[in-house]
Amino acid sequence: MITMKISQLYNKGKTVFAIEVFPPKKGSAMPEKIYAALEEIAGLNPDYISVTCGAGGSDSQGGSPTVQVASFLKNVCKVEPVAHLTCVASDKQEVSDLLAQLKIHRVENILALRGDINPDIRRKHDFIYAADLVRFIREQGHWEVAGACYPEGHSEADCLETDLKHLKIKTDAGCSTLITQVFFDNALLYSFLDKARETGIDVPVSAGIIAVTSKKQIERMVSMCGASLPPQLTKMIAKYETRPDALRDAGIDYATRQIADLIEQGVQGIHFYAMNSPYVARKIHDNIKDLL
Ligand code: FAD
Q1: Residue 242: other Cβ atoms inside 10 A
Q2: What is the pTM of this model?
Q3: Bridge partners of residue 147, in order along the sequence
Q4: Diameter of the chain by CA atoms?
Q5: pLDDT tens per residue across span 203-245
Q6: What lines the ligand 1 site, CB under 6 Å?
Q7: Average pLDDT score over residue span 53-61
Q8: If we measure between CA atoms, which residue out of 122, 53, 50, 51 comes closest to residue 91?
Q9: Are 66 and 84 in contact (CB under 8 A)?
Q10: Could you tell me which residue, 120 or 176, shows the higher pLDDT?
Q11: In terms of CB atoms within 10 Å, which of 14, 166, 217, 280 comes out highest?
């Protein structure tokens, strides 16, 4: 079997370009629509596609939607998938069962996450932090494990410096790459990268970028993840909020400019949150493909 670990993609003299998608909800009415969108996104041939998962447990009963989509990308679309895996509501046996499913489908790359703590989710305690999950997965075999990081600091950490100390524990536990939370001001990323390097974190970092295409979507996302909106972006959203096509185009333009600057400044990877939109993913890809 040919193995493809995503860390091998970095340091080849080009910027790694990845796209993030989400699977259809279990029992959703039109999963085939999502699969058609995923196939179109895979057709852009990104370096890899990561597939989100719910925080509510490993959900291995009847097959996890994340595993199904990751398998589809790997075995049908022939694009390398990264399966997200959360542990806040899973025990070791459930994680092992999920790893077994991933192995059957030849998925080798995992983004190991704790998941948000949420009163609607019954917490389990085999894993307290994502670092515990990273360590556990690495003990199970030759998995490639990535971790999440936060240019503005994670919302539960008292400051960025403390969060970076915890991030160092996570990379020492066996993360070979990191993917950032979305951010809208590149200066935040550059400062974060400098501090991460000073903390001794030396694995490749991919920068998480989203195109703002709807006011509601971005407000929801920002309220969940705590990313700050710079004044020029807030102004842009206010100007176009009643004209969906104009807001979408302006959002794509803003994200394109952010990515172009990141590439010029030498970031190792771009992780584009496509929200399952082939239109937006294609526009972004077309705008930046010659820069990569
Ligand atoms: P951790 O690394 O465990 O960090 C969580 C908090 O604990 C931080 O404040 C950290 O500073 C602190 N901490 C860590 N270690 C220690 C320690 N040893 N002592 C004290 N404090 C410590 N969520 C989903 O549900 N599904 C997804 O698919 C998903 N995908 C994501 C993809 C990316 C790229 C990112 C950035 C986030 C994603 N999330 C997803 C959200 C993520 O689950 C939440 O942000 C969650 O709150 C934290 O997860 P983590 O893996 O970063 O946790």
Answers
A1: 9
A2: 0.97
A3: 112, 178
A4: 52
A5: 999 999 999 999 999 999 999 998 999 999 999 999 999 999 9
A6: 52-53, 55, 84, 86, 113-116, 129-131, 148, 154, 156-157, 163, 166, 169-170, 179, 181, 208
A7: 66
A8: 122
A9: yes
A10: 176
A11: 280
